[in-house]
């Protein structure tokens, strides 16, 4: 009897909430399907059950209802390349992150999960000097050394006739670079068998948990309290993440104990996040572990994916590869290992290839809503109330045919033509989001892409081995984009250039 009463009351509450969302909610007049407006049910189905495919339903909504749609009870989505910067950069407005979204990151003390605008500025200011253009230029010797190590491994695979998955290889390289910079030493993932990389495994684990954790954050926090072997049986990806947190804690603890006696004193984690000038609450072990996790995982996975996708498109079109090599060959004489970031970024075609690779690999692809805390947003005739989550998907910006005609084609010349016409296409690249909450490691990502792509195509002849465009096109949008299940390897055979 009590269960029947409880069930009846719960049903009434649910129906009442749906009625409120449809007819009394502040967003009730915004366009969009009623099945989305009544709550989070439609979103849950496509994001959790169908594994990150709500973006394609949102795309259909925009075709029917226009550039602004209500995609759940509380959130608006705007698909307009010209308005993307207003959502994310803010133009001086105080912008918070959405609490429900950042709860899914399971690193509550990291900058990336900081909701409040002002507190985020404090945390970001601690790290910005270490990821500036000047700081990253000083990292070029380390990046070149890791590229040398990668090439030695590729020579070995060439001798063995082994097919290589480029994304695994690039993840090993980017993982070594970011861990060396962050901790003062790296795990030499490039020497491991088949480029085994625990940071990549942990990143994939976090990303695969994202949507479920967004709807059920208490589940993610509960799993963090379980022994790792048990978590591994429930969710292998979560187990990788938890093990990575343990490893990060050990390294940070060791770094803090020996920061004046060892090379680790040169690491970002010690130099930036144990500064006595920081507020005391920002120098706790828990905060350092959370920040360390996000920087390591972000610095490993996204750049490697972009590099692998870009190499696929370059190798898939011999004309693109030939033109790229011709441009590199026209540089002042000198070995490729002497390439510099500043020298390479002056090359228009290489820059166009990188921009096109960023566009079609999408980078951070999840919606990541932003909230204007005080001021309403104005979009056309619509006035969006303050504290309304507003978002935009980077793939829908990158696939906009008005900005990028024939949007799914990899065409570096579109960037050359735009530059010649005085059009700034780069403002439509949303791979790193925009504004003060955009990706911390943009200069590092560009430096790695310029140096590795230039040296790789100069040194090796790579041939695709069964990889097709479906292996790099996005389908599942978690935090970043993934192809359909069972696809995603950029496999190549290796030959040394004469």
Tell me what the structure shows:
With 498 residues, this protein is an alpha+beta fold. It has a single domain (74-496), classed as Cytochrome p450, CATH 1.10.630.10. The chain has 22 helices and 12 strands. A hairpin with a 5-residue loop joins strand 1 and strand 2 (76-78). The model is unreliable at 261-265 (pLDDT under 50).
Descriptive key words:
single chain, 498 residues, alpha+beta, Cytochrome p450, 5-stranded mixed sheet, 22 helices, globular
Produce the secondary structure layout.
Elements: H1 2-23, H2 34-37, H3 41-49, H4 54-65, E1 68-70, E2 76-78, H5 84-88, E3 95-97, H6 99-102, H7 117-127, H8 133-137, H9 140-160, E4 164-165, H10 166-183, H11 198-215, H12 217-224, H13 228-234, H14 236-257, H15 268-271, H16 285-315, H17 318-329, H18 341-344, H19 348-361, E5 370-372, E6 377-379, E7 382-384, E8 389-391, H20 394-398, H21 413-420, H22 442-459, E9 460-464, E10 476-477, E11 481-482, E12 491-496
Parallel strand pairs: 2-8
Antiparallel strand pairs: 1-2, 3-5, 4-12, 5-8, 6-7, 9-12, 10-11
């Amino acid at each position: 009897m009590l269960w029947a009463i409880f069930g009846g009351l719960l049903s009434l509450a649910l129906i009442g909430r749906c009625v409120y969302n449809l007819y009394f909610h502040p967003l009730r007049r915004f366009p969009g399907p009623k099945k989305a407006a009544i709550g989070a049910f439609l979103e849950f189905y496509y994001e959790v059950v169908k594994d990150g495919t709500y973006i394609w339903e949102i795309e259909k909504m925009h075709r029917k209802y226009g550039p602004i749609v209500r995609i759940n009870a509380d959130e608006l989505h705007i698909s307009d390349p010209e308005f993307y910067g207003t959502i994310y950069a803010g133009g001086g407005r105080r912008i918070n992150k959405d609490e429900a979204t950042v709860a899914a990151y399971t690193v509550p003390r990291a900058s990336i999960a900081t909701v409040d605008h002002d507190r985020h500025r404090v945390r970001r200011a601690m790290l910005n000097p270490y990821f500036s253009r000047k700081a990253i230029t000083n990292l070029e010797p380390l990046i070149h050394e890791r590229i040398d190590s990668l090439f030695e491994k590729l020579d070995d695979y060439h001798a063995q006739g082994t097919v290589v998955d480029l994304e695994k290889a690039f993840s090993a390289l980017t993982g070594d670079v970011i861990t060396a910079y962050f901790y003062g030493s790296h795990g030499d993932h490039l020497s491991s068998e088949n480029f085994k990389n625990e940071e990549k495994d942990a990143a994939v684990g976090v990303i695969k948990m994202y949507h479920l954790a967004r709807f059920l954050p208490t589940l993610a926090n509960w799993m963090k309290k379980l022994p790792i072997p048990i978590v591994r049986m429930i969710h292998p990806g979560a187990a990788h993440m938890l093990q990575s947190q343990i490893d990060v804690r050990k390294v940070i603890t060791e770094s803090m104990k020996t920061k004046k006696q060892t090379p680790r004193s040169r690491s970002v984690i010690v130099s930036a996040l144990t500064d006595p000038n920081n507020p005391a609450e920002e120098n706790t072990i828990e905060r350092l572990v959370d920040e360390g996790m996000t920087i390591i995982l972000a610095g490993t996975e996204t750049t490697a994916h972009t590099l692998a996708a870009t190499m696929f498109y370059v190798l898939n079109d011999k004309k693109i590869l030939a033109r790229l090599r011709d441009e590199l060959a026209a540089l002042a004489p000198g070995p490729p290992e002497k390439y510099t970031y500043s020298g390479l970024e002056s090359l228009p075609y290489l820059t166009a290839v990188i921009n096109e690779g960023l566009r079609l690999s999408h980078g951070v692809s999840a919606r990541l809503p932003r909230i204007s805390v005080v001021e309403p947003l104005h979009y056309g005739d619509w006035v969006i109330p303050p504290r309304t989550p507003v978002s935009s998907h980077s793939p829908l910006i990158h696939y906009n045919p008005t900005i990028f005609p024939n949007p799914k084609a990899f065409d570096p010349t579109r960037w050359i033509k735009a530059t010649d016409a005085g059009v700034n296409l780069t403002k439509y690249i949303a791979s790193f989001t925009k504004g003060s909450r955009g990706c911390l490691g943009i200069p590092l990502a560009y430096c790695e892409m310029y140096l590795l792509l230039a040296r790789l195509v100069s040194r090796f002849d790579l041939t695709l081995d069964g990889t097709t465009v479906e292996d790099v096109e996005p389908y599942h949008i978690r935090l970043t984009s993934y192809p359909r299940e069972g696809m995603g390897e950029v496999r190549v055979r290796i030959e040394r250039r004469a």
